Amino acid sequence: MAVELTDSTLYLDGVSVSFDGFKALNDLSLVLAKGEMRAIIGPNGAGKTTMMDVITGKTRPDKGDIFFEGSIDLTRHDEAAIAELGIGRKFQKPTVFETQTVYDNLELALKSDRSVRATLFWRRNTQSMARIDEILAITRLGDHADMLAGSLSHGQKQWLEIGMLLAQEPKLLLVDEPAAGMTDDETAETAKLLKDIAENAAVVVVEHDMTFVRDLDVRVTVLHEGSVLAEGSLDAVSANERVIEVYLGR
Ligand code: ADP
Ligand code: MG
Fold it and tell me: Whose CA is closest to 30, among 62, 61, 64, 58?
């Protein structure tokens, strides 16, 4: 394997998960280098969401190794502990507080960060305002800070939810189908937004939209029946006959 365990943000080796005898993950191995952004594609039922479930501790693997930052055995931690370690997860459905402003949503997310809460009050306030401004800029919501979250577009709500995850300063961000339901413009902007985030964190993004995946311009892993079918540049995996057969050609 090109990337060693010690140089990795995320390391999965031989991970299997069965549901009633059906192997949702089947000897899955995948290594994410420090600071890398990776796109995951593959047909419905390939195991993409289950992979995120085992990384975040929502589902226990039947077997296999999962290490974070080279030495932290994620299979020995529960969901809350894994979040605390700096692994943030964005689900498909946004769960923002609709009756609060964009700004207040971000402030609420920031206040639940223990490291921020631990600092002195006035410093926390100055620091948190600066951080909220940064997050507003990253999430393209600077002009909407005073709007109620409920009146944002679907795409903007997704960005706000990503912003709320950024308030926790994740080292690794997992994003499942962010472009679903977005307009073409929002989808294109989401690729840029994730690239901005990837300058400071490792990112794993599952997405079906091939234009979006091309915009990300990162290494792609194709999952099929719970294991890796192909890995490489989008052009390389798109030319792979097995990938065309099971996924792209359909
Ligand atoms: P993807 O995200 O690639 O579409 P999933 O990881 O959601 O695929 O699902 C992989 C397979 O595992 C599917 O056949 C799905 O029905 C099954 N599966 C996922 N989670 C569960 C669960 N909690 N119980 C039973 N089967 C599940
Ligand atoms: Mg899924």
Answer: 64
For 208, list phi and psi in degrees, rounded to 5. -90, -25
Q: What is the Cα–Cα distance from 85 to 27, expressed in whole angstroms?
A: 25
Q: In angstroms, rounded to a whole number, what is the distance separating the alpha carbons of residues 101 and 124?
A: 20
- Helix H or strand E segment including 31: strand 22-33
The pLDDT of residue 1 = 47
Quick check: 32 and 69 in contact, CB under 8 A? no
Residue 43 in contact with ligand 1 by CB distance below 6 A: no
> Is residue 90 within 8 Å of residue 165, measured between CB atoms?
yes
Is the full-model pTM beyond 0.85? yes
Radius of gyration (C-alpha) of the chain in whole angstroms: 18
Dump pLDDT digits (tens) for 211-221: 999 999 999 99
What is the torsional sign of CA 154, 158, 159, 161? Answer: positive
| CB distance 19 to ligand 1 below 6 Å | yes
Residue 119 in this model has a pLDDT that exceeds 50? no
Q: Ligand 1 pocket, 48 CB below 6 A?
A: yes
Stretch 203-226: mean pLDDT? 97
Which of 12, 19, 58 to mutate for ligand 1's pocket (most ligand atoms within 8 Å of CB)?
19
